[in-house]
Amino acid sequence: MKRTLFRNQLLPWLLLAPQLLITAVFFLWPAGQAVWSSFLRQDAFGFTTTFVGWANYTALWADPLYLASFRVTLVFSVAVTVLAMGTALILAVAVDRLIRAGSTYTTLIVWPYAVAPAVAGILWWFMFNPTIGILAYVMKTLGYDWNHRLNAGDAMTLVVIAAAWKQVSYNFLFFVAGLQSIPASLREAAAIDGAGPVKRFFTITPPLLAPTTFFLLVVNIVYAMFDTFPVIDATTSGGPAQATNILVYKVYKDGFIGLNLGSSAAQSVVLMAIVIALTIVQFRYVERRVNY
Amino acid sequence: MVENRPWLTLLAHVVLTFGVALVAFPVWIALVASTHEPSTFLSGVVPLWFGDNAYDSYATMLSAGISTSGAPPVSGMLFNSMVMAILIAVGKIAISLTSAFAIVYFRFPFRQAAFWMIFITLMLPVEVRILPTFEVVAGLGLLNSYAGLTIPLIASATATFLFRQVFLTIPDELTEAARIDGAGPLKFFKDILIPLSRTNIAALFVILFIYGWNQYLWPLLITTDDGSYTIVAGIKRMAEVAEADPQWNFIMATAVMAMLPPVLVVLLMQRLFVKGLVETEK
Lengths: 292, 282
Hints:
The complex is a heterodimer.
Chain A: H1 11-37, E1 40-42, E2 49-51, H2 55-62, H3 64-97, H4 102-110, H5 117-127, H6 134-141, H7 152-180, H8 184-192, H9 197-227, H10 229-235, H11 247-257, H12 261-291
Antiparallel strand pairs in A: 1-2
Helix pairs in contact in A: 1-12, 2-12, 3-7, 3-9, 5-7, 5-10, 7-9, 9-12, 11-12
Chain B: H1 6-33, H2 54-63, H3 74-105, H4 111-120, H5 130-139, H6 146-150, H7 157-168, H8 172-180, H9 185-196, H10 198-213, H11 217-222, H12 231-240, H13 248-268, H14 270-280
Helix pairs in contact in B: 1-13, 2-13, 3-7, 3-10, 10-14, 12-13
C-alpha cells in the first residue's frame, strides 16, 4: 500500500474512464445480454420473443449433442494438456542438463508461441491432407488409411496435435524456469548420499516442480477449452459428425450459423461459469504462491 | 551439474535435436510447399525439398492475391494486421497504465469496485460472449473499421495488474520528492512512473503485439469486405476453397507471411518476450 497519495478526487475517475467504459460496453453489457437472452426463446422467424425461464438450460441437459460436446471437450482438453505438457517437460529436463548449448535450443523451441493457432491448424491440416499430405502418405505406407474428413478419431488426433504443437513452447519456458529454480545444493546433497541421476530426478524434481505443474495445468486447460477455437475452425469445423465440436465452437455454431439464440446464450453462460471457476482456482493458487 | 555423465548429456542432445525438428517440421513443409508450382500438388505427395517457383508464389500473393479463392492481396492484409496488432498493444498499454496509476496512487470511493470491474474482463473471453458483443459493435456502426477491430479487445486486466505490481514497488520517497518539487499527479506520471516502467512496457508490448496479430475469430466476424481482412483471418477464407482448388503453394506462402512478423518479434526480442510472458502470468 502506498503511503504517499495524491488527493485529487476527479482525476482518478478520468484516468479509469477509458478502461471502465470499454469494460462496460464490450464486456458487462454483452455478458448481461447473454444471461438475459438465455432465459428467452425466439420463434423461427424472430418475430416474437417469450420468456421461458430455465427452459433453455434444461433443454441443454437433455440434448445428446450438447452432452456429446462436453465429452469431446473433455477428451480434447485432457489430450492437449497431457501432450503439450509432457513434451515440454521432457525438452525442459534435457535443456536443464546442458549448460552452454541450452540457450540455443531454447531459442529454437520457443518461437512457435508466436504462430497464430489458426495458422498452426492450417499447417498440420496440410500435412495430414489425405491426398497430398506428407504424414497421411507416411501412414498409408504403414498401412493406415488416414482420413480426418470421415474418421472421427483421425479428426480429433489432428486438432489435438495442432493445438498441442503451439502450446509446447509456452510450457517449455515455464518448466525450464521451474527447473532452474531448484537449488543445485539439493542435487549435490543427494549425489553425496549416493543417489544416481535417475533416483535424484524422481525424488527431487517432481515435488519441487509441483507448483509450476499445477499452474501450467490450469493455463493449459483454459487454453484448450477457449483459445483453440481457431484451430478447430480452420481445420475440421467441428466435424466430422460433431466429433471435434468443442463447447466454445458449439456456442459460435449454434448462435451465428444455426441462429438458435436462446440455446447459444445458455451455452455461453455455462462457459462463463467454467471460466470463472478456473480463474478463481488460478488466482487462489497465485495468492498462495506469493505468500509462500 | 553434479557430476559428468557423458551418456546423459548425449541423450539430452538427442532429445532436443528431435524436439527442435518436431517443432520446425510443419514450418519446413510450409516453406517448401510455397516454392513449388501449383501443378506439383495435383498428384502424389508434397515434396521435401525446395522448388523454383518461390518468387511467383510470394509475388502473386503480395500484389494480386487469388480472386478465385476470395483472397485479396496479402500486402493489404499484412498492413491491416500490423495496424490492428499495434493499436491493440498500444491501446491496452495506455489504458492499463492510467488505470493502474489511478488505483495505486489515489484513494477514492468505489476504488475496490472499479478494481473488480477490471478484473471481470479476465473472466469473459470473447469466444463466450461473441454474439452479443458482435451486436453491440454492429449497433455502433463499427463493422469493417479499425475501431471495431481493436477497441473491444483492448480492455485488459492482466496489463493493469502488471502495472499495479510495478507501481507498488516504486519507493514512496520518489513520490514525496516529486511533490516537494511541486510536481502534480500528471507530471509525476509522465516524468517518473512511465520512464521507470519502460522495460515492463516494452516486454508487455512484445506479448500484446503477438496477441493482437494472432486474433482470429473477432476479425473474421467484424471484417466482411475484403479490403479490411487481416491475414490470420484471411488465410482461413483461402483454405476453405483449397479442397476444390488446391493451390497449396499460394496458401502456404500466405501462411509463411502470416507467421513471419510475430515469429521475428520473438526471435529478435527473446529477452523481452520471456520477461513479458513470465510477468503477465504472475
